Amino acid sequence: MHYAALASGSKGNCHAFCDGERALLLDAGLSLKQVRLRMEAVGLDPRTIRAVALTHEHSDHIGAVAVLLRNTDWVFLVTPETKAAVERIHGIQIPDRRWVPLRAGFAVDWCGWRVHPFTLPHDASDPVAYRLEVQGFNAAVVTDLGHPTALVADYCQDLDLLVLEANHDVDMLRDGEYPPLLKARILSRVGHLSNVSMAELLANVLSPRLRTVVMAHLSEQNNDPELVRVVAAEVLQGWQTSLYLAHQRDPLRPRAPEPLVAS
Predict the structure, then answer these.
(1) In which element (H, E) is residue 14 found?
(2) Cα torsion 10, 183, 227, 161: sign
(3) Domains, the chain, with CATH or none
(4) Most buried residue among 129, 140, 195, 233 by CB atoms closer than 10 A?
(5) Strands 2-7 and 14-18
């Protein structure tokens, strides 16, 4: 299984998983042109894309939905509440033949992949994250949550790859130039995950199986990539886990981890 963070941040989010024959995108906050260019840039074939799974209706996650509906035959995996919100925002209708209905807490089979949507604490209609299980490979993409919950930690057990939000440093956010209402929203329990909360969740899901961790959705104004790296590396100390930071402008494809050697 191949993974790439095509874009991650407040200006647009899109993650790609590909088994060599078919690819699934998580979120559509990147233009169709950029999806294709960035897939090719990391050695993945955009012609393999078959579907897009949406997490929630905020603009940095759904900006390209209308274009994708018009210019591709991809299907959309999305809950009814989020689908209705996306349709209202874009003034479109996703036809039933292009829709795979989801419900948080209930896995669906898609092209032999097991797709598990699960609930997140975020200020959207029906926000979810995703756990994917494909041919013995387990991964989760967990961003846009205000605080770590036991449910989220449960879905992040026994993973090979975890993509996890590290949105802001609390002091940087509080001392920054954002207006008070926006600061309050981000800091709320349905806002975004701070570096400290990220470390708490990461520590609760570590296992020898977890070989790759990608920090995602970093704020360009309220965080520092090196600070994120230090905080996450402290949690990962002593584990054979590779750490990466996803970017807003440049795609990232983590290297395949070396196989574990039995002691």
Answers:
(1) strand 14-18
(2) negative
(3) 2-245 (3.60.15.10)
(4) 129
(5) antiparallel
pLDDT in tens, 151-167: 999 999 999 999 999 99
Q: Do 43 and 18 form a contact (C-beta atoms < 8 A)?
A: no
pTM: 0.96
List CB contacts of 159: < 8 A, sequence separation 6 or more. Answer: 131, 138, 139, 140, 205, 207, 209, 210
Cβ pair 130, 116 in contact under 8 A: yes
**What type of residue sits at position 170?**
V
Strand pairing partners for 132? 115, 139
Is the alpha carbon torsion for 189, 250, 59, 1 positive or negative?
A: negative
For residue 224 the two structure tokens come to: 């520092």
Contact criterion met (CB below 8 Å) for 6 and 32? no
How far out from the chain centre does Cα 187 lie? Answer: 19
Q: What's the token pair of residue 215?
A: 């920090």
N- to C-terminal Cα separation, the chain: 26
As given in the structure block, the two tokens for residue 166 are: 């590290």
Q: Per the structure block, which two tokens stand in for 252?
A: 């990232």
- Give the number of other CB atoms < 10 A from CB of residue 141: 26
The pLDDT tens digits for 177-221 are: 999 999 999 999 999 999 999 999 999 999 999 999 999 999 999
CA distances from 196 to 38, 171, 200, 203 (A): 31, 11, 6, 11
Cβ 244 vs Cβ 213: under 8 Å: yes
The span from the CA of 122 to the CA of 145, in Å, is 5
Q: How many CA atoms lie within 13 A of 190 on its CB side?
A: 10
